[in-house]
Amino acid sequence: MMLSRTLYGLEKKTDMPLFTRPDNIPGPALSRVAGGRISVINIVVVVLFFGICLTALNVYELRRLQNDHMSLHRDWSAAEGRTDRGVKDRPIAVIRGKRLESGYLNHVFAVFKRIGYERGLPESNWDVMWSHDYPFADPKVSPYLRNMKPHQKVNHWPGSGYITNKMSLATSDIHFIPKAFSLPHKKQELLKHAESNPKKMWVQKNNNHRGIKIRPLDQLDLTGESFVQEYVDKPFLVDGRKFDIGIYTVVTSIDPLRVYMYEEEVLFRYCPKDYHPFDPNDVDKYVVGDDYTPTWKMPSLKEAYNRLQYSHKEAWDHYVRSIGKDPSTVWRDVKASLREVVLAKEPQLVDALHSKYQSVRNFFEMVRFDFVIDEDLNIFLMEVNMSPNLSSAHTPPNKGMYEQIIFNLLSLVGVARSIPTSLEGSPEDQKDMLVCERDIQVYSDVCDSETCRSTTSCTNRVCKLCGHCLTPDWREHLKAAFLEHVGRRNFRRVCPVPMTQEEAGDTEVTSQSSLSEANWLMDYWYRGKCLQDPAWCT
């Protein structure tokens, strides 16, 4: 029997049968066999088709990820030698540090790239210099820092070592800092204090923060260059672990002083081992190292952090409230400590600044204040870290926190802006669009009174902020403060001191302030803004 079949839509006849039906297989059964074979073939074809598509998609995604990774480094590497403005007047960032290939500044690179910066060299016409090391002693960059243009900014203050130097800080006799003695100069004072406090334990430190261990007084080296500090015993424990907290703090201005604290998040680092039974020879029980235990591994905190998506800070606050204590006292004292330390060191910072640099508006700096807390929730400042760690290599879940901190910092100081061009040579109408003269005016009733109405009244303290009395220098200070407030995001002002509207109107407190003239005027301006709008009070 001759069969006719349609193949790919074409009618074709053949003289040979396509197949011969065996005699022992009935017609319907043979049809089912043929249909089953066709179904299997169809399934195999469909599976192969989707497999090929999935493979192609995976190859595409892999190439895309590789291209994205290479793009970040290619773009920045290509721009690294740039000395001009580049394409479309994009702003330029100089990022410096030792062994950058290790990746410890990867989050810094990523944030600058996302906000539109190209990478340049110190000799380029840069807008921002981010240096991991103290740049003013670096002969490769210090000449460029002595002759900066008004728009350029550097992420360190000249003289910031007065705050971050461990011995300088510990021996400053400032509230919240455990008693400390520099050796060998203060040896006799140490012995006298130890005799009056025989139960005190001591920790011997140096500026490298290495080899810390609790020792009895008779085992201390009292002849070498170091300092000895009282050990904070009876620490507050979470799940039996001692911990420290790191507060990211930014100084945006000196003379007048403006200081901010990153309030949304705090770095909590828990010791690797339980504190009890206490053993002074086992430093993992009381010293926080690189292998610290993070929040998400702490039994009493991981539920709040992992499932409820609380921050490190809120997870700890939640725990403290659950045991009947008030965590707000800790944060109140932390802010007071930040303010007290920077105010105490400001005169030295001013001297270091004015001795070599003409402008006070080219600098900003973020440091990390590290505290420990005792069982009564008293805080103790242990050190202030210059260029604090911003790498999540050891703690990948902290990636988002570090990148948010960097972005919030750059927003606060005006480096991350909604205007994606260089900071250099901004036209006056663009500057006025961001902040104009009317934005900074305060105390309208006072300025329109007989006390301040005439130009001869500008020597009166309460009139110095009036529009007709403002000097060009102070106009720039106030405009910078205005823009910081607008761009602060999760940072909150620590200095000048936050206040309520009721406190802002307390003229007796204002008039009796012991602040320097510049700091008094800055505080007075914030009080005026607070009276206008409660959002300015904190």
TrEMBL record:
The chain crosses the membrane at residues 38-60. InterPro entries: TTL/TTLL_fam (IPR004344), Tubulin_polyglutamylase (IPR053317). Keywords: Membrane, Transmembrane, Transmembrane helix. It holds the Pfam family TTL. The keyword Transmembrane helix applies. This is Tubulin polyglutamylase TTLL4-like.
